[in-house]
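Re-run with default settings, no changes from the original entry. Doing this only to confirm the output is reproducible before filing.
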Amino acid sequence: MTGFGGLEKRFDLVGIDPRGVGRSAPLTCPAGGVLRAEPVRLPESGRDLRRLRDRNRRLAASCRGWDAPLDSDSAARDLDLVRKALGERVVHLYGHSYGTLLGQEYAARFGRHVRAAVLDGVMDHSASRRRFVVTAARAFEDAFGEFARWCARSRECGMDARGAYRQVVAKARAGRLEGDWTPHTVAATADAMLWTPSWGAVASFLRTLNAGRAWEEEREKPPATLNHADPVVCQDYAMRYRNAGELRADLAAARRAAPLVGYSPNAMRAVLACQGWPGPVRNPQSRAASTARNPLLLLQSRHDNATPAAWAREVGRQLGGGARLVLLDDWTHAVKVFNGGCEARIVNDYLVRLRAPRARCGSTPPDAR
């Protein structure tokens, strides 16, 4: 086994199939035509919001197991059953992206069984809906700004990326792009592409659409099946709007925070998926806590537009002495610690020796292709 930064030589690696996905009583949604109605524009009117709620209710009604407890607190209880089945008194945890919320829940509830935990690309479970939307918008704006600065000084790019983005969005709004693009799908595609520093591809995307040509790569389209994370998010976060005015207020706040990109399509997708979704919010927002005897290691890219650095900072602030936050000068979504290099050394030192990390890692060079 390779690709785990040497950890496979010291630890037994056990992957967990969380409830609701894979073979763990998966949520099954043969929704067909309902899924084809996935919105490609942001709803802003009361009529739009009612249609979205109706769509989500019909989708839930078509799903087997939609009302099961799928929240991260329930998943943490499952994780402890796995620990017991393995006969282990203590475990070492690694959580990536949304998995960091599972790690936080486990450390809070079952911390006596945690020797060490690495949370890579940190979720903030204390975030209100407004803060969730605004901090994510600001992170997308920051990530695009990093790309734009590279583009301005790079021979491979050599264009005004901010101006190019504004032009593409304006053309999408006017229906003047090749293909069925909308401002929302343009933003969603750019947002997803910036999860890794493949900046040459982002430049090609903007240049191609502005030139009136079809983009050969697949744009960010509605999924063929229900995103398994949607029901989980809706049970972990209170995201519902009482009326369209609250939705418009969130979007206005996001646009003030991110005047170029306007909002985070990734964050808004999660929020909108919860509108009209039936059932309780089983594990609503709460502050981070840990009963583990050793500090948790929070790893975070500074310019991550999927799990913003602001979330990691807030979780670190709430945990206080119960966490060590390492901010890396990088642009990837989560740090991908098992690919070796400096990040792997930080994780190895922490997991093996419980050393407080002091290393500073260099950034991953942008990919100009």
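The CA atoms of residues 181 and 274 lie 24 Å apart. The chain has two domains: 7-19+70-126+286-353, 43-68+129-279.
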